[in-house]
Amino acid sequence: MALPYDSAAKFAEYAHPEMVVTTEWVSRHLDDPDLVVAESDEDVLLYETGHVPGAVKLDWHTELNDPVTRDYVDGARFARLMSQKGISRDTTLVLYGDRNNWWAAYALWVCSLFGHPDLRLMDGGRAKWIAEGRPLSTDTPQRPRGIYPVIDRDDQQIRAFQHQVLDHLGKPLIDVRSPGEYTGELLHMPDYPQEGALRGGHIPGARSVPWSRAAAEDATFRIRAELEAIYQGEAGLRPNDDVVVYCRIGERSSHTWFVLHHLLGYPNVRNYDGSWTEWGNTVRAPITRGEKP
Amino acid sequence: MTTTALHPRLQDIADEFNAIPGAERLQLLLEFSRDLPSLPARYAEHPDLLEPVPECQTPLFLAVEVDQDAIVRLFFDAPQESPTTRGFAGILHAGLDGLSTEEVLATPGEFSSQLGLQDMVSPLRLRGMAAMLARIKRQIREQQR
Q1: Check: complex ipTM more than 0.85
Q2: In degrees, to the nearest 5, what angle opens at C-alpha B103 toward C-alphas B97 and B104?
Q3: What 3-state class would DSSP assign to A166?
Q4: Rounded to a whole number, what is the distance in Å from the CA of B9 to chain A's nearest CA?
Q5: Which residues pair with A241 in a beta bridge?
Q6: Three-state secondary structure call for residue A56
Q7: CA–CA separation, B95 and B114 (whole Å)
Q8: What DSSP string describes A28-73?
Q9: Separation CA A129–CA A22 (nearest Å)
Q10: Out of A43, A189, A192, closest to residue B84 by CB
Q11: Which residues from B are below 8 Å from A46, CB to CB?
Q12: What residues contact A155, with CB distance under 8 A and at least 6 apart?
């Protein structure tokens, strides 16, 4: 049985209030057997230093990626992973993590490729939980195995591949990397080779909105009016635009995908997970340098 | 590719990692992060003396001192919320602090790949560790001039 939604007033403004819960909500429902809380961090050791009591760890690097091909796990692996974590298809899965929920949003996006029915992010993530003095545990949770069917991954709705981005040129693109990565100057720091791409700059036409602008000081999402001011006011998106977001490997842009799709309600937002490490290394892929889109 | 033998202290650390199953290696890395000494006052009060390592995915700063006997002292600063980066710094500290300049300079740049962590830690993070080592070596060479 799915858990009730969080009725916090801030969330009611969002297009999909059911996608977010407060730390308080999580705290109240921790013992509910239909809820699994999962921590997904940028730092792979952080969970081990202490986590929300009962929360399982979801590792973006070792568990959500295919170990050989640059791709996500397939349906069989995903089903196995979810079952091992004690997650069933009808489980309410609440994700949270470090760095403004950057990696938690990434994990949520990958789970969305498999259409997990009830996914939510804990607003403010790990930082807010700790700031509020809530308990942390280092115990490894023992959960009964989940029952998870093998579901084919759907790459058509929320994921974009390079050829699709080439077809998309001229339509709205959001580059969520730091300003230095966007202009292309970061590849040119003397003596400090940056990993990943041979060429610097951005996809022609992409607007720069660093992903973390969607987060307030306390790591929670900004309220809807502030998000609209950023993405519609500054970046010029119009309601119902078909949008592609990207970063370096598709993680930071998952956060922006979540904001645009679930908080602001854009129906068609795709995350280009090949992102700059693919684009900036591809022969003849068009690139724009500098501050202008 | 030439392989340079590791200093016995680093070799012991590498052996320790490789002797245990994958999941336990993260726990060991966590221990190294806990054992990383905090900065002495002369650096804690003057963070500008530390060199940033932007290749690490989280903030890391380091300082290298070479005394008149050519013994290397290493100092690292990384936030508690970045235990992986701290763990790498802890390994370098445990393995290299107190060795001679020659011994530190002889450490192979790809040392981080010998810890058996590739399957657990992203290559970008391991590259951060290689970057720390490269900067340590560069600082030693600069101080030798």
Answers
A1: no
A2: 55
A3: helix
A4: 24
A5: none
A6: strand
A7: 13
A8: HHTT-TTEEEEE--SSTTTGGG-BSTTPEE--TTTTSB-SSSSSB-
A9: 9
A10: A43
A11: 81-84
A12: A113, A161
